[in-house]
Amino acid sequence: MRLAPASLLAASTAAFALPALAADPELTVLDWAGFDVPEIFQAYIDQHGQGPTFSFFGDDDEAFQKVASGFRADVAHPCSQMVGKYRDAGLIEPWDPARIPNFEQIDARFLDSEVFRDDQGVWFIPTDWGATAIAYNTENVPAEDVQSLQVFVNPAYQGRTSLPDSADDVWALGYLATGTTDWDDVTDEQFQAAADWLRQAHQNVAAYWSDPSEQAQLMASGLVDVAWSWNDGVVYLQGDNYPVGFQREAEEGSSTFFCGFVNLVNGPGSEDKAYDFINAWLEPSAAKGLLDAIGYGHTSNAAMATIADEPAVAEGLAEIDVPVLAQTPNDPEQRQRQLAEFERIKAGF
């Protein structure tokens, strides 16, 4: 999805202004803005002559609230740390792996949680993964300044940074910056240290971005020089020849996340088509479209093998020799505490 800079914010706004992008009326997909890329689910289009109907969201909590409030879709695309919340609320039902031929190709590390798979079934089909790290204007920001996450509290960049309006990504940054690399067992002291640091970082923030297109627009406009970014914002900027770097090896580290699809209960459409859509996503050929359009990796080993030699894999997805905070499912109470504290920080408290 290569957009000219002037079009980025308009496209993002349009995505939220419309309730859905209508196509196949028998399958509604609740998805991240920007994931309606035909190359990712081309097998579904080949089979049914059109893509599904999409309804878009900008962050995981927004999507959950939408479903919890009664919005009806057949499948949704949360990231891993949200799956337990959907389960606890009774909003999803298990998938049948017997109907998913490429299920065994999914790298086992993406299913290594009882939240995703237990004796009741498979609750989550992981499909895509990426990194959260420092995107920066290589013409305005010296490389040495992004060797550390402390660039986000550097007074030289007051009013020149942007952070995601996503509690998970922001807390991953706060924990890493204060020396915590695993959020599975956070102490009160570690939580407070990260919160204090995030309050400092807030003083430098020009804007919190709601989706990668908005982040790319903030940087392309010249308003922001440093952002805590997913791969896709960098891909959009590279496509428009913006001078952007993606620093995943700051000394304190960077973060990773993975997302996938849940099967919503009482979906209004066709269950058969829901499986057709998942099977299209898990085709090895989907990896190239996912990488080119969004910069993400695929959870399927067979799919990743088809793009192993792509430069974008080396730039944004390769193994790195610094700490990595993996955004895996954490304690629901801890996550809620982080979400509430993030709202206070954004409000200036």
From TrEMBL:
Keyword check for Cell inner membrane: no
Keywords: Signal
SUPFAM superfamilies associated with the record: Periplasmic binding protein-like II
Coiled-coil intervals: none
One Pfam family named in its UniProt record: SBP_bac_6
Signal peptide: 1-22
Domain of life: Bacteria
The name this protein goes by in its record: Spermidine/putrescine transport system substrate-binding protein
Protein's organism: Paracoccus tibetensis
